[in-house]
Amino acid sequence: MLLAKFVIAQGGTTIKASVDKSKILIGEPLKLTIEAYLSPESVKNFISIDSIKHFEFVDKPIIDTTDKRGGWNIKGVYTLTSFDSGQWFIPSFLLSNDAKSDSIPIEVVFSDFDPNQEYHDIKDILEVKPSKEKMKWWWFLAGGVLFLALMLLYLSRKKKPVPIAVQKAVADPYEEAMLQLEQLQKEKIEVKQYYSRLIDIFRLYVFRKKNILSLQKTTDDIVVQLRSLTIDKDQFDKLAQILWLSDFVKFAKYIPSKEDERNSLDEIRNAITTIEKTGAKTPL
């Protein structure tokens, strides 16, 4: 059974969410499909789905994009499952104030048990006598393991001591971030790798400088954490837009212009410099 919910927004932006089944057994996979058309004005507002409550992602999503009428048709197929019995909802996904999908109910149940099924006694465990051929095989295996252990012991005694490496001094987080941004600006790499490196530089800086652990978090999670930093709203909005744009490049195959690339690097550099100069702190 296919369930689909969609909303058409003003300006032609649409989003539709659908699943291939509304009821699954615990651990049984289901397909969630997100289809959207983004107008040129809203192309940077595409959603990034990293987690859904009561559900787990079984595999990486399959994202497909096509250019249409100056905007983008985007289709993402996600494979989910759940190990929590009950009725849960796949939430609505928001593109803008007037473009969002409806939530979809999913029922998660245990496998059915038939009390009228014929009863069968449990049989005793039968003793199986090992054959002579299997006994010989075990003797060969034991001999091989013993020989290998003796060889490893002999080689370990002849091994020369490994010289202790002198640990280099850790560079200042700000200086290291500025150096990495300068190197990235000079490199000629494909756009997906460029934005991945750019965001990693920023995430590593805020972790080392402000102890904001974000290397394994989603973009939405780090945006929430960064709200606690004392930087002005305009700069924060630009920083959040670059983080979401990076997701769009990596997962939706969006190709920004060279000017967007330069502006993104400049905004990341300015944000790091502002945090460094103002001593922005997160609340304990």
Structure in words:
Strand 1 and strand 2 form a beta hairpin. The protein is extended, with a radius of gyration of 28 Å. It has helices spanning 132-158, 173-186, 191-210, 219-226, 233-252, 258-278; strands at 3-8, 14-19, 23-25, 30-38, 56-57, 62-68, 71-81, 86-90, 94-96, 99-100, 104-109. The protein is built from 6 helices and 11 strands. The protein starts with a strand and ends in a 6-residue tail after the last helix. Strands 1, 2, 4, 5, 6 and 7 form a 6-stranded antiparallel sheet that branches. The chain has 2 domains: 3-109, Immunoglobulin-like, CATH 2.60.40; 173-278, no CATH class.
Q: Which keywords apply here?
A:
284 residues, 6-stranded antiparallel beta sheet, single chain, 11 strands, Immunoglobulin-like, 3-stranded mixed beta sheet, alpha+beta, disordered N terminus, extended
